[in-house]
Structure formats: C-alpha cells, structure tokens
Amino acid sequence: MKYDPIKYSIGRVVRNNILLRKLFYKLLGLMFLREWHVKRELRKLLSTEHRPVRVYDAGSGFGQYSYYCAKKFPHCSILAVDVKEEQIEDCRVFFQKAGLHNVCFEVEDLTQPNHENEFDVILSVDVMEHIPDDGRVFRNLHRALLPGGRLLVNTPSNLGGSDAHSHEDESFIEEHARTGYGVDEIRQKLESVGFEIEKIKFTYGPWGSLAWQVGIKYPMFVLNASKAFFLLLPLYYLVTLPIVLPLMYFDYVSDNRKGTGLLVVAKKL
C-alpha cells in the first residue's frame, strides 16, 4: 500500500490555485485527527506569548502547519524546511500569493546541524518515523532551540502506528523507517540529548483508530486500485463523515491509555 503517491497526486491538483490550496488545507485540518491534536498544542504554546516568537517547522511538507501558525499567530516568524525541493518551491509560491510574509521556506536536511539557539518552538509532525538516524536529528533540534524552548513531536506509536504490529509486517505507510516509537524509547532518546519531557500523550486510541480506518485508510486502498474512485469520494464521505467526525471528537477529548499515535512536548533546559 502506497500512501505518499496519492497524497502528492492531490497536492499537484491544488498546486497553482490559491483557493483550491486553501480548501485543501481546510480538508486536511478536518479529516486528519493528528491536526486536531497538534493544533491544540500549538495554541497552548503560542497563544500565551505576546512577544515575537521564532518557530521552526522541521519537515513542513505541504506547509499546512506553517499556514496555521502564520494566520492565527501573526506575532510568530516561521522558518519552514523540508528536504523535498518541489514542495518547498510550491509553498513559497503559495505563501507569496496568499500575502503571508512571516514564513520563510528553505530546503534543509534535518540530519545536518543547521541552527543553534535560534527558535522558541520547534514543530515536527510525522517526520521522525521517516529518518533512520533519529538520534542525530533530536540532537540538532535541541541545539536549534533557545534555552527554555519547546519541541512538539507528533509521530506514530509502536502500537500499530504504521498499520504494522511487528517488524515483519508490511507498513501501510511504506516510506517509514520504523513502525513507530514506544513511550520509553522516545523519552529516553529525547532525554539523552538534554530535553526534559513535559507531556507524552497517546492519540488515535480506539475511537480515533476506527475513524482513521474509515475516513482515510479504506479510501486510500481503493484509490491505489483505481484513480476513478476520486469521482465517488464525495458520495463516500457524504455517507461516512457523520460517523467519522464524532469518532475523531471522542479521541480528541479522551485520555487514551494507548493509541497508534504519540504526541510529545519536551523542553530544552
């Protein structure tokens, strides 16, 4: 099962149209539960600040989190980076057209030490599971933060977060370097480079996992089989959204004892 080709196919459709890209961001924010959880933490980290805040979007992808921060928190200046030049260039063009000038996009490799004592908040959403040398990246992110700065990480857990329940299983997201993190593992890796853990929270518990399967996984399987299913997606979601959205809300307000996602907030001492 290949997930990224479908994602990038959709991205190419909205690439050059500012209204379609804004709609695309809204749909991502509606349909992807991780955005609900990540944006809540961003509000906690950024809404209490009234001084200028430097944010590092480490692995910005389509740029939806940089867009959210730039619009909702204009006192922030954001450096958004990714290794994929095409996505960075797309974001540069869109943000310029959208008139958002508090975001700068650059091509960067997170395994290289590019920054030191520069940022108040670092955001890493669904990035670390793609990087084999995660220890080096955690060290670089710690180095890039100002003392007292926070790192917000969202990543799959090792409880089926890549739709794989052992190292022998084929991941739903084939591009992942690992099936996910355990709580003790990510705590140890972050503390070993100098972070203090403030929060580790399971996301995608029973309700959220079911919502993801119905709302994202099954449509992706069908789209991999035939792109013609794009034409039927509106009808599919007309039927399933009244089920999927309440399931996502239950996950959002629940204190999950376990789940296929992990959200971590860590502080640089």
Contiguous low-pLDDT stretches (5 residues minimum) are none
What would CATH call the class? Alpha Beta
Give the overall silhouette. Answer: globular
Work out the strand percent: 15-25%
Give helix and strand order, one letter per element, not per position: HHHEHEHEEHEHEHHE
Number of strands: 7
Looking at CATH, which topology would you report?
A: Rossmann fold
Total domain modules: 1
Give the name of the CATH superfamily. Answer: Vaccinia Virus protein VP39
* Share of helical residues: 40-55%
Calculate the terminal CA-CA distance, rounded to whole Å. Answer: 41 Å
Q: How would you sum up the major sheet? A: 7 strands, mixed
- Please count the helical segments: 9
Notes on the protein architecture:
The longest helix is centred in the C-terminal third of the chain and has 21 residues, at 233-253. It contains nine helices and seven strands. The protein is 45% helix and 20% strand. α8 (206-225) runs antiparallel to α9 (233-253). The model has no long low-confidence stretch (mean pLDDT 90). It has one domain: Rossmann fold (3-Layer(aba) Sandwich). A seven-stranded mixed sheet has the order 3-2-1-4-5-7-6, with helices on both faces. The protein is an alpha/beta fold.
Nutshell version of this structure?
By secondary structure, the protein is of the alpha/beta class. Helices cover 45% and strands 20% of the residues.
